[in-house]
Write a structure and sequence with these properties.
The protein has 10 helices and 15 strands. With 352 residues, the protein is of the alpha+beta class. The protein has a single domain (4-331), classed as Aminopeptidase, CATH 3.40.630.190. Strands 12-7-2-3-4-13 form a 6-stranded mixed beta sheet. A 3-stranded antiparallel beta sheet has the order 1-14-15. It has a two-stranded antiparallel ribbon with strand order 5-6. Strand 3 (102-111) and strand 4 form a beta hairpin. The longest helix is centred in the middle third of the chain and has 20 residues, at 140-159. It is globular and about 50 Å long. The two termini are 16 Å apart.
C-alpha cells in the first residue's frame, strides 16, 4: 500500500447545477472538427477523394466489434454515440512512436435528438485503475502501456460510459494545421519562452499582445505551464482553438483545405471510417449545435514511490464523478438506474 503524503484542495468546488455552456472546444478536438469542416467544403473544390484517402490511411482496426458496455452495434447516422479524442506527445525526436503518453483526453458524447455534444476533459494525472497493467496509475500512462485500447478500457472502467469511437492525434497535426491555415490571430497574455515540438529548449519566445502566430508558436502557447497553472492553460487552449476554427471557416482559408487534409491525414489514427465521419456533419450544418463542456473535480494527491519520493496525482472526487456518469449516460440514452461503482484498489502500485 502506498503512503498518502498529503492532499490539498486544487480547485474550489463549484455548484454542479451552474454548468457552463461553452462553444470553445478543447485541444486536439479541433483537428477532427477541421477535417469535418473540410469534408463539407470539398464538394465545392473537388478534393473529396483526397479527404477519403486521408481518413482511410488513418484508419486503425482496434480489434473491437463494439464497446463491451454496448449490447448492440451503434451507427452514428441515427444513434447517440461517444468519441474519445486522444492527444499524444510523440515525435521522432523522442523516439516514442507507439508508446507515447496521452497529453490530452476528451470524451465527447453526441445526442442526435437534440443535436448536442457534451465534452468531458479528463485530467492527464487522474489516478485511476489501468486494466492493461492491473494497478492504479495516472491515466496518461495508459496509452504508453497499451495504446488507444488500454486508454479506452481505463476510461470505460471509471466512467462506466461506452467509448464507441476514438481519434488519436499528435503535436505535428496541431502545428501543421495552424501552418496550413496561414497562422492564427491570438492575444498572447504574457511574455514567455518555451520548447518547440522537437523539445529544443526555449526556442519559442513570444511577447504579450494581439499577433499572428504560426503552428510552433501556437503549440508553445497551448502547452506552457511556466506562467500559471493547468486551469489557465486550459483556457488558453480554448482561445487558441476558437482562433483556429474562426480561421478555418473564413472564406479566405478555403483554398488551404488541401494542405489541412494532408496535415491531419499524416498525423492521425482512428477507428472511424470515412462514412462514419460524414455522418457527423449533420451536427454542424444545422447551425444550432449545442456544445457543453464538463470537467472532473478532484484534489491534489501525493503518494510516495518505491524510493520514498512524493509523486503527484489528481484524485477524482467520487461524488462529482457519479454526477458526471449520470449526465453522460443520460445524454447517450443509457440507463442511469444502475452504474458501476468506481472502486479504488486496495494495493495500488505505480511504475516509473
Amino acid at each position: 500500500m502506498k503512503k498518502k503524503h498529503h492532499i490539498n484542495t486544487r480547485v474550489e468546488k463549484r455548484k454542479f447545477k451552474k454548468k457552463r455552456k461553452n462553444k470553445k472546444l478543447i485541444l486536439f478536438i479541433v483537428i477532427p472538427i477541421l477535417l469535418l469542416v473540410t469534408v463539407t467544403s470539398v464538394y465545392a473544390i473537388n478534393i473529396l477523394n483526397k479527404a477519403q484517402n486521408a481518413v482511410d490511411n488513418a484508419f486503425e482496426d482496434d480489434g473491437r466489434d463494439r464497446s463491451d458496455l454496448r449490447e448492440f452495434d451503434v451507427n452514428p447516422n441515427h444513434d447517440h454515440v461517444s468519441v474519445l479524442f486522444i492527444g499524444v506527445d510523440e515525435n521522432e525526436h523522442r523516439g516514442n512512436q507507439g508508446s507515447a503518453r496521452s497529453d490530452a483526453l476528451v470524451l465527447a458524447t453526441l445526442n442526435k435528438d437534440d443535436n448536442s455534444v457534451k465534452l468531458l476533459s479528463i485530467p492527464r494525472d487522474s489516478y485511476v485503475y489501468i486494466p492493461e497493467v492491473g494497478y492504479m496509475d495516472k491515466i496518461t500512462h495508459a496509452h504508453a502501456f497499451g495504446g488507444a485500447l488500454a486508454t479506452i478500457e481505463s476510461i470505460e472502467g471509471f466512467l462506466d460510459i461506452p467509448v464507441d469511437y476514438w481519434v488519436r492525434l499528435n503535436f505535428h497535426a496541431f502545428v501543421d494545421v495552424v501552418d496550413a491555415l496561414g497562422g492564427i490571430t491570438i492575444d498572447v497574455p504574457f511574455e514567455f519562452s518555451e520548447s518547440n515540438s522537437q523539445d529544443k529548449r526555449d526556442s519559442i519566445h513570444l511577447y504579450p499582445g494581439i499577433q499572428v502566430i504560426d503552428g510552433e508558436e501556437a503549440l508553445a502557447l497551448a502547452r506552457t505551464r511556466k506562467m500559471d497553472n493547468d486551469i489557465e492553460r486550459g483556457k488558453r487552449q480554448q482561445e487558441i482553438m476558437k482562433a483556429i476554427l474562426d480561421k478555418a471557416i473564413s472564406i479566405g482559408s478555403i483554398n488551404r483545405f488541401d494542405d489541412v487534409i494532408e496535415a491531419v491525414g499524416d498525423n492521425m489514427g482512428t477507428n472511424l471510417s470515412f462514412n462514419d465521419i460524414i455522418s457527423f456533419i449533420s451536427y454542424g450544418i444545422s447551425g444550432q449545435l449545442q456544445v457543453e463542456t464538463l470537467n472532473l473535480e478532484g484534489n491534489d494527491l501525493y503518494l510516495d514511490n518505491a524510493n520514498g519520493v512524493p509523486v503527484y496525482y489528481y484524485e477524482l472526487n467520487q461524488e462529482h464523478l457519479a454526477e458526471i456518469k449520470h449526465i453522460l449516460r443520460s445524454h447517450l440514452g443509457l440507463s442511469t438506474a444502475a452504474t458501476n461503482e468506481y472502486e479504488e484498489q486496495s494495493t495500488p502500485e505505480t511504475n516509473y
